[in-house]
Amino acid sequence: MLSTASRSAGSPVCARRRPGARFFDVPRRAATLLARVDGRRGGLAPSCSVRVGSDPIGCLEVEPPWSGVAPALPLRSVVAPADGSLSVAVPSSEQRVHDVVLKQAALAAAALAAAAPRTVRPVQLAEPERVAGGLKAAFDRCGEVCKEYAKTFYLATQLMTPERRRAIWAIYVWCRRTDELVDGPNAAHISALALDRWESRLEDIFAGRPYDMLDAALSDTVAAFPVDIQPFRDMIEGMRLDLTKSRYGSFDELYLYCYYVAGTVGLMTVPVMGVSPDSKAKTETVYRGALALGLANQLTNILRDVGEDARRGRIYLPLDELEMAGLSEEDIFHGRVTDRWRSFMRGQITRARAFFRQAEEGATELNQESRWPVRN
Q1: Phi-psi region for residue 68, left (φ > 0), alpha (ψ -120 to 50) or beta?
Q2: Sign of the CA dihedral running 29, 178, 52, 309
């Protein structure tokens, strides 16, 4: 077996589990981050065995609460120097993400302004699969998958209206299937071509041509709610990064990756959860809050899993900030928990807390039945 340090930068090893349903778990995830990083290991968590198993949701068909007040800084401005303080910078990646936010917010605002309900196109299952029971069976299956893999999240969705609940299940299942492509038991056999095929299949879903029953549930969802395809495409792009990239030179690069694999979830789901009719906030503000929640959760995962990722030859920390802190890749690979490391991690926590705070502010503007599942 290769040692951690000898793995190549582009080694297609299993990546860390992404948030998925954990997107909705703000206080618990923040507490986990603080407990892990402030503990004895300083974020260098023990290794865990790589999962093996079957493919129960059919994703491989494409190929045989913290204290204090958060800093009043815009989302793109949060930077974590080694001393744990905050400074301001404007990464170019944030503007790219901001354009996606604006587009999705505009779609949602237009749908809200329209007096008549949206026209829903009929969804027809493509060959080779026809589903007995139609869409009801499709959504029921999505609910079963959600209940099996994310029970707490599933219970939280019971507070939503039936239409919203089913739609959130469908989005969750698509995200999980996508995640399984590069983080599942058969991840070593997934290629860039497989992801290209998965993206082509996504386009068919949005065009009303689903391949199977789980696709059909999502196809019906995106026809019924003002959901844009771009966040879904971007999540697939994040999977492509995991096939080829294992280092991030700056937070600008890491920000884009975190958006791809986690921030996208917020942009997918807010059109379904809806904005409160009493909200005085701009639609864009609500979407930026949802984006911040995904980013915060992914940063939490990164800080929690530093040791596990290192054993897979991966570093999901900004290398330039590591260098400024007087740290190196070898410090991470050898699990050296020093005062410099603890100071560096305090800065990373400060950044994550700022994103959590912005997420909390956005959650207060959601529809009442959607608000509680997100905030608790």
Answers
A1: left
A2: negative
pTM listed for this prediction:
0.75
pLDDT digits (tens, 9 = 90+) for 121-144: 555 555 444 544 589 999 999 999
Number of Cβ within a 10 Å radius of residue 285? 17
Contacts of 3 (CB under 8 A, 6+ apart): none
Q: Domains in the chain, ordered, with CATH?
A: 14-39+79-375 (1.10.600.10)
Backbone angles phi, psi at 78, to 5 degrees: -85, 120
Q: Tell which residue, 303, 267, 268, has the closest CA to residue 30.
A: 303
* Ramachandran quadrant class, 313 (left: phi over 0; alpha: psi -120 to 50; beta: rest): left
Cβ burial, residue 244 (10 Å; 0-12/13-18/19+)? exposed
The model's pLDDT over 227-279, given as tens digits with 9 standing for 90+, comes to 999 999 999 999 999 999 999 999 999 999 999 999 999 999 999 998 877 87
The structure tokens listed for 110 are 């237009």
138: left (phi over 0), alpha (psi -120 to 50) or beta: alpha
Q: Where are the alpha helices (DSSP H) in the chain?
A: 26-37, 92-113, 134-149, 151-157, 162-183, 192-206, 213-224, 230-244, 251-258, 264-273, 283-304, 306-311, 319-324, 329-333, 339-363, 368-375
Task: Say which residue the tokens 């100071």 belong to.
Answer: 343
